[in-house]
Write a structure and sequence with these properties.
The chain has 515 residues and is mostly helical. Helix content is 77%, strand content 2%. Strands 1-2 form a two-stranded antiparallel sheet. Helix 16 packs antiparallel against helix 19.
Length: 515
């Protein structure tokens, strides 16, 4: 018998949102913002926690990476679980564990304790994120209002990612490293206090229990694949990376085969037969894939080439971020005039101009090209995400909203990881080749270490005499800008292809009725 959905929300399929629903959106903004902050807030605290806890290099790498690993591995599982047991119930449970894990992390007395806390934070965040997005679909049934709500949701997520280092820097000025986690606790308490009153509950009846074997297979496949991708990004495409990817692919195949045999699968593969859904996921994945490396290298440019402090670099990123937030909020309005596929295509063309401008960045430390390019890229990609997420969620059956939300967010996680691994590896190779050509043939001892990264080159230059150090700095910065330009050209090519996809495929998909 087909599963049905029982909701305590009184809304009908196309009713307008109430004041309670908009208050609920404000409450849902809290976990969205905090989960995004926790992705970047720890970066500036690394020197402080290293001095306090003295982790090994392997422990430090896992402390940084395990949060994203667990989010990626658990998103779809938690989304499906929320569809079965109730999205509000899962959200509130996630908030409890997120607050407890944050406190656990803040007062960790050893590297192993902090690593465990970060893993628990990742699992808790995976429970929060699909629940917030799925609840939006329950609260905002009118497609226009839902588009605005999702735009607010996505803009807050972007804001949290950008503001994370700024908040971290400010806290570290006055408090110990663990303070970067304590911000989560009072906001989770607000969510727990207000959530039951302003958020509806939605429980899918007749769906059966979550298949634990499927969950284990999915988690194993994703974690193994993400590990392989991360290894490529941080090391090289070696036997370890290939083995991890092969194992992940094998387990993933076992998972998919199991889904075809279950009466009520954890992942409904029929979702992918919907052109609206599959084209939306592909657009989301490839957009983030294209943006990840140029965006990361641009932040490095601000500090290592332009000479800004981490806090100054974070503040310099605020105008592009605010421009992106404005674009994501205006995108749903634009879809009232143009087809969502046309809006997506136009936004990709704006991002393409940004990539072209970023490719013109010079090694003299000027900020106009890099910040202008970032602003246009952020405008185009943020507006696209606001439109595409609504397309993805509205294409899925209501009883599968949590599952669709998990898939949407997992595509973003994979796009980020794979973009940094693939385009990042190409950019790193370009950096090494360019530096070797410009500086590697003169026998300077500093050039060997400088081949690793620009940050290493700057450290090596400080050990040399003034003339040799300046020559190494100039060559390494020019090589870095070459790698940044190459990543921008790759991004430009991808977004132009996505513009064609939007105009040729998404443009032909019927609009979602608003009622």
């Amino acid at each position: 018998m087909a599963a049905s959905t029982q909701s305590t929300s009184a809304t009908t399929p196309h009713s307008r949102a109430s004041i309670r629903d908009w208050l609920g959106l404000a409450i849902l903004a809290l976990p969205t913002f905090l989960v995004a902050i926790d992705m970047t807030v720890l970066h500036l605290a690394v020197p402080h926690l290293t001095a306090a806890l003295r982790p090994s290099s392997a422990q430090l790498l896992w402390i940084i990476d395990i949060y994203g690993f667990m989010i990626a591995g658990c998103l779809v599982i938690m989304g499906t679980l929320g569809d079965r047991i109730g999205r509000r119930r899962l959200l509130l449970a996630g908030a409890v564990f997120f607050g407890v894990a944050s406190t656990f992390a803040a007062f960790a007395g050893s590297a192993a304790t902090l690593l465990t806390a970060r893993a628990l934070l990742g699992v808790s965040a995976a429970a929060l994120m699909p629940s917030t997005l799925a609840l939006l679909t329950d609260m905002f049934r009118d497609s226009r209002q839902r588009g605005i709500a999702i735009a607010i949701w996505s803009s807050l997520f972007m804001a949290g990612t950008t503001i994370g280092p700024i908040i971290g820097g400010a806290l570290l000025e006055y408090f110990w490293w663990g303070s970067v986690f304590l911000l989560n606790v009072p906001l989770m308490l607000i969510l727990l206090a207000a959530g039951p009153f302003v958020l509806p509950e939605n429980v899918r009846s007749g769906g059966g229990r979550l298949d634990l074997a499927s969950a284990a297979l999915f988690l194993s496949a994703v974690l193994t694949a993400v590990y392989g991708i991360k290894h490529i990004a941080t090391n090289a495409l070696d036997l370890k990376a290939l083995l991890a990817l092969a194992v992940g692919l094998g387990i993933g195949t076992m998972f998919l085969n199991r889904q075809t045999k279950l009466a009520d699968p954890m992942l409904d593969l029929s979702l992918f037969r919907n052109t609206r859904f599959s084209a939306g996921l592909a657009t989301q994945f490839l957009t983030i894939f294209a943006v990840a490396t140029p965006y990361f290298l641009s932040t490095q440019y601000l500090q290592l080439v332009a000479g800004l402090s981490p806090l100054e670099a974070g503040l310099a990123m605020l105008p592009p971020m605010l421009a992106g937030m404005a674009a994501s909020l205006l995108a749903p309005v634009a879809t009232r005039i143009l087809h969502p596929g046309s809006v997506t295509g136009l936004m990709m063309l704006i991002a393409a101009v940004g990539f072209a401008l970023l490719a013109l960045t010079s090694a003299d430390g000027t900020l106009n090209a890099v910040l202008g390019g970032l602003a246009l890229i952020t405008i185009g990609s943020s507006a696209t995400m606001a439109v595409i997420v609504n397309i993805i969620i509205s294409a899925a059956p209501e009883e599968r909203a949590g599952e669709a939300s998990g898939l949407s967010e997992m595509s973003g996680e994979f796009g980020m990881a794979l973009g940094l691994a693939v385009i990042g590896s190409v950019a790193s190779a370009a950096y090494r080749l360019s530096l070797a050509k410009a500086h590697g043939s003169d026998g300077n001892a500093g050039a060997t270490g400088a081949m690793d990264a620009l940050g290493t080159a700057i450290a090596e230059a400080e050990k040399l005499d003034t003339a040799s150090g300046n020559a190494l700095l100039t060559a390494s910065r020019e090589a870095f800008v070459t790698s940044l330009a190459l990543s921008a050209v790759i991004g430009l090519t991808l977004v132009l292809g996505l513009a064609v996809l939007a105009f040729r495929v998404l443009r032909r998909v019927p609009r979602q009725n608003s009622g």
